[in-house]
Design goal:
This protein is 38% helix and 17% strand. The chain has 201 residues and is an alpha/beta fold. It has a five-stranded parallel beta sheet, with helices on both faces. It has a three-stranded parallel beta sheet with strand order 1-2-3, with no helix packed on it. The structure holds zinc ion. Zinc ion binds next to loops.
């Protein structure tokens, strides 16, 4: 039920392929998402993303997105749109990394409505950002990691999200998904069902 991780584990998880994994042909995990992270933009990895996108383990595209704390916003945007198109071509979910760019994101999805479900990973935003995202993309899902589930407003934010569109993750923390589940106090069966449904697994 770990919707987004960069580490292998024995719990069911979606493994986000690193630049190194993109050029290899095997990984341990059963479910993977190929993408070029906005921190590691590199044109040459597009070939690896396309190859992995045809693999039977591929359950989504990304992570991709926009990060104002990192350089090359224009290249990040080009890469994001490329992943967005690929996800729609394949009818797969898109996994988003959004840091200090929610207004850019809303501007984009208002103009160009997404056609597949999206997962806003490591969501650290507000109630207003949840409702704004859902207004332009009703199939936006939100995933919370070890830091966010410990925040005082977590339970409150969780309640704002449609029940079938909320998930949990470990990202690159090294914390187990069972610990995240425990801290979050959310329903195990609910996040398990949402995990299976979003990624069609
Ligand atoms: Zn990540």
């Amino acid at each position: 039920m770990d919707a987004h991780t960069h580490r292998y584990s024995s719990d069911p998880h979606v493994y986000i392929l690193s630049p190194k994994d993109l050029s290899s042909i095997t990984v341990e995990s059963d479910y993977v998402c190929p993408g070029i992270h906005p921190w590691h933009l590199n044109e040459s990895h597009k070939t690896g993303v396309i190859q992995w996108s045809k693999n039977s383990k591929c359950v989504g595209i990304g992570e991709t997105g926009l990060d104002r704390l990192y350089p090359d916003f224009d290249r990040q945007l080009e890469s994001f749109l490329w992943h967005w198109d690929l996800a729609e071509e394949l009818g797969k979910p898109l996994v988003l990394h959004i840091v200090k760019t929610s207004s850019d994101l809303f501007h984009l999805i208002k103009k160009r409505r997404p056609k597949t479900p999206w997962l806003w990973h490591d969501f650290q935003g507000s109630h207003q950002e949840i409702s704004e995202a859902l207004k332009f993309h009703p199939q936006m899902h939100f995933s919370f990691g070890p830091r966010s589930v410990k925040k005082t407003n977590f339970a409150n934010l969780w309640q704002t999200i449609p029940h079938e569109q909320r998930l949990i993750e470990t990202d690159d923390s090294g914390v187990s998904i069972l610990e995240v589940l425990e801290f979050s106090k959310v329903s195990k069966s609910e996040v398990e069902n949402n995990f299976h449904k979003l990624f069609s697994i």
